Amino acid sequence: MIYKDQLNREITLSKTPTRIISLVPSQTELLVDLGLIEKLVGITKFCVHPKKLREEIKVVGGTKKVNYDKVKSLCPDIIICNKEENTLEMVEELQKIAPVWVSDIETVEESLEMIQLLGAVLNVSEKAEKMIAEVHVEMTEFHNFISDFPAKKVAYLIWKSPYMGVGNNTFIQDVLKLNKFENILQNETSRYPEISLEDLKETDLILLSSEPYPFKEEDAVELKKALQKEVLLVDGEYFSWYGSRLKDAFTYFKTLH
């Protein structure tokens, strides 16, 4: 059977995979929610949902570096990666062990496409389509909820010292647009540009993500004092984890408005 991933690469499989390694935390969560936990044999140290997953399944490394010997010893039928999360070098090395399926996601729609495509590859299309339908219902209801809210100029910060935000061509940028948040960094050429305190004065609202830098309340207080702007701590997983987390994301987004 020949399938295509989101980079339009052909993946040849002799059977439906029963031994899966996932090297993307949000996609690991998706596989669990699609009922495939018993087929997961390898994950990363960042695959933290469900909470006990790392106690039950072999950890083969991180998203940027894995132990290839551990991966090989698990005899995977397929390895699931992401263009941004994982490196080209990793994908090339992993291909010597097993077929590698790579996602490439910059929008919510591409996330839903990923769910559909993986559903077909892993023979859980019915569950995948049901999940996609649930997300569409939630997204439509959220559009109606937010329709009368005014747009706000925002900066979404992911790092401190120096402050770094989110630019264009990112999944987070698409999620910001859905929330009627006008990203002041959306025209930057860098996906994750540095931003100064002076530039942050252009905002109506500053969003401090819980990941990858774990912003805390004292960081919000510091920025409020320096800029006299509204600052919110936000759950970064709802803004950056593509996959089944989208089912609950729109309920969370309502709390920000």
Structure description:
Helices cover 39% and strands 18% of the residues. With 257 residues, it is of the alpha/beta class. It has 2 domains: 2-125, 3-Layer(aba) Sandwich (Rossmann fold), CATH 3.40.50; 152-254, Rossmann fold (3-Layer(aba) Sandwich), CATH 3.40.50. The strands form 3 sheets. A 5-stranded parallel β-sheet has the order 5-4-3-6-7. Strands 8, 9, 10, 11 and 12 form a 5-stranded mixed β-sheet that branches. It has a two-stranded antiparallel ribbon with strand order 1-2. The termini are far apart. The mean pLDDT is 97.
Please sum up the structure shown.
The chain is of the alpha/beta class and 257 residues long. 39% of the residues lie in helices and 18% in strands. The model has no long low-confidence stretch (mean pLDDT 97).
Classified by CATH, the class of the largest domain is Alpha Beta
Q: How are the strands of the biggest sheet laid out side by side?
A: 5-4-3-6-7
Main beta sheet, described?
5 strands, parallel
Q: Domains counted in the coordinates: how many?
A: 2
Architecture of the largest domain, CATH level 2? 3-Layer(aba) Sandwich
CATH topology of the largest domain: Rossmann fold
What structural class do the secondary elements suggest?
Answer: alpha/beta
Order of helices and strands: EEEHEHEHEHEHHEEHEHEHEHH
Provide the β-strand percentage band: 15-25%
Query: What is the number of helices?
Result: 11
- Going by CATH, the homologous superfamily of the largest domain would be Nitrogenase molybdenum iron protein domain
Q: Write down the Rg.
A: 19 Å
Instruction: Name the overall outline.
Output: globular
Q: Specify the oligomeric state.
A: single chain
How much helicity do the residues have? 25-40%
Mean pLDDT score:
97
Number of strands: 12
Contiguous low-pLDDT stretches (5 residues minimum) are: none
